[in-house]
Structure formats: structure tokens, C-alpha cells
Amino acid sequence: MEQEAKCKNNAEKYIANLEEATKTLQIQEEDKTVEQIIRLVNDYLSDARYYLSQNDCLTSIACSSYAEGLLDALRLLGKVDFSWPQQGHHAKRVLVGGVFDILHPGHIYFLRKARELGRVYVVLAKDQTVLESKGRPPVLSENERAEILRELKTVTEVIIGTYPPDFKKILEEVKPDIVFLGPDQSYLVPLIEKSLKEAGISAEIKQLDKRLENYSSTRIKQSIKNS
User: Helix H segments across 77-135?
Assistant: First the structure.
């Protein structure tokens, strides 16, 4: 168990380093080959996140290593410039949660703002939780929603929640530095504060001040229904 935890921790560090490096990436000499290699880097990074989410940390590390090698090769050739994180750099863990049914620009905006704070861990509501809270099942299943979210560059890991929801268990698993809420999730603050205290975790609760206008899953579903 200790070895598995160490392996997962190393995989997370590799991914964090890559994420920080790609944020500083600057192309010095543009050509189609460079563009193709950068796409490969991003593909390997996506694969690293996926395998980590499947608890296959060794394959995740291998994918990250391939991406690192490609970036270093491009820099040696003078094609790109970037900076690896300084030793001891720690990207904060940012925990977000939601249904994310029919992904739209409002969701992307929320996740992008979360990514500005650190590495994003998404807790996805189970189908049964959605059915109970909204009175109807989601359009996309929990596995389909998770698969879509894992393809986003802003997302480090997707965790399908529990039924019934167990905030304390999720907090203990992710150990976030920040819990980031959407503008309509204020009602969760007392419950999260209580769960953080029970889990013995000191995390800051932050909230997006306003949603991106004119976008909501409910409105999109209604428009589809009326079309």
C-alpha cells in the first residue's frame, strides 16, 4: 500500500511538472513538425492523466516521461522555450464538484478559473445522486461525463463520487488545498466546512463570483426539447 501511494505521488508530480511547463511554452520557430510534436506532448499528458485516474501510475509516469523527452528535444533544437518548475514547487490541489451534464462554455469557464488556482480534481455526481436531487436522470451517464472531462487540459483527475455523497471520504482522498465552488453552490459551504473539520484538513474555500452569462445545462436541455 505504501509503495502504491509513493508511485501515485510520483505520477502526480510528473503531471504537475508537465502542466506547469506547457503553461510557459513559447514556440520559437513555427513549422508543421513542431506543431505535430506539441500535439503529441499534449496527447501524452492526457494519457498520463487518464492512466493515473485508472490507478495505473507506472503507465502514467511512462506517458509523462515521453512528453518530457519531446519537450526537451524541441528546446535543444531551439524550436521552443519553456521552464520546468523550480525544485520544491508545489502546485495546489483544487477540488471542484458538480454534475457537468452536457458540457458547455459555462463549465469550461469554471474549470479554467479553477485551473488558475492549481491542479484541478473533479468530483462527479453519480447518476443516482442526480436522479434524487433533480428528479430526473442526467442525459449522459456518469462514465460518459467522466470520459469527456478527462479529455480537458484543465482537469488533472476525475473522481466519480459516492452514493449517498460522502464529502469526508472525498476530502480524505484528494487532500485539497482549495475547495472551489460555483456561484450557485453557496449552500454547500456549511457542509464542506464541517467535513473539512472532521477530516482534519485545512483547506481554503473559494467561490466563483458569477457564472458565464446565458449558459446553463437546464437552458440547453429546454432549447433542445423545444426545437
Answer: 105-115, 127-134
**Cα gap 117→113, rounded to integer Å:** 7
Q: How many Cα atoms within 13 Å fall on the side-chain side of residue 62? A: 5
- Phi, psi (degrees; rounded to nearest 5) at 64: -65, -40
Confidence at residue 9, expressed as pLDDT on a 0 to 100 scale: 86
Question: Closest by alpha carbon to 43, among 69, 72, 21, 64?
Answer: 64
| Domains of the chain listed by start with CATH number | 2-81 (1.20.1270.90), 93-226 (3.40.50.620)
Residue among 213, 187, 192, 210 at smallest CA distance from 113: 210
- pLDDT tens digits along 132-155: 999 999 999 999 999 999 888 889
d(CA 104, CA 216): 8
